[in-house]
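User: Here's a chain of 313 residues. Predict its fold as tokens.
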Amino acid sequence: MITTVTLNAAIDKTYFLNDFALSGVHRVQKMISEPGGKGINVAKVLHRLGLESVATGFVGGHSGEHILALLEARGIRHQFVTVAGESRLCLNLIDETAGIQTEVLEAGPSIGAADWERLKETVAQLAGDSEYVVFSGSLPAGVDSGAYAELVQVVQQRGAKAIVDTSGEPLAKVLAAKPFMVKPNESELAVLLGKEAHTLGIEEIRDAMHRWHATGIPLVAVSLGSEGSLVSYEGTCYKVTPPKVELVNPVGCGDTFVAGMAAGLARGLSSEDTIVLATAAAAANAEERQAGCVAVEKLADLQKRVKVEIVNG
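Assistant: Prediction complete.
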């Protein structure tokens, strides 16, 4: 089983508009409402791929109740911790005329000490039945920046492998806990290295990966947006180029990549086949209007079009 952890769950609403501007009245052409937050997106993709999974994290208020109802409607198992306050609403405004998007993200509820202890107990319980535990997304108010590091230690003590997709100080601190896998994007890695993202070359990214391996992190993936990713695992570094697709909505592609990696690992696929599955799934998500959605019937063709090169140095 795979557990996904979303500490700042959300209702994700995507508005499709024409000629969006910062003033005036705009009529929404189409609206999609989904249970969201990065970990929930991972859970949705795992469900689509047929993997046994359970989603946990924090939810609160009427929005939290709605998130749980949406998960149940999709047949996704969940065991969330309910807190005071209201789970956040995240808006993704897509201007179909200009081909641009704007995201507006609420903060979400503040988490108290008792809430945090209940969450740790829930994660520990689920980790005992899981092979992998995926931690994704930002931290809510009231939670220390070392929260993911603490949770990684909890799941590793129960014999599960931790996969972490976060940024900033939470990412910097979680590295010391030596999770099984981390997945920063190029900009997030650049911040850790004190660099500008556009200045990073393959060699510099690969060197950072090797340093993390040396500390005890077996698998590192650095996403490069539409250019694909660099993935280093079991002594081999891969440059991965995704297939060309018609971009509809890029939100959730990174989460879908993480879900594909977790799915491939759980199924015992080879390193290359796992990377190909993750990349094809992310490309399939880019073609959909909602985040965390994969048309599984497209995967076989997309997998054939993923290019994987070994770039060891």
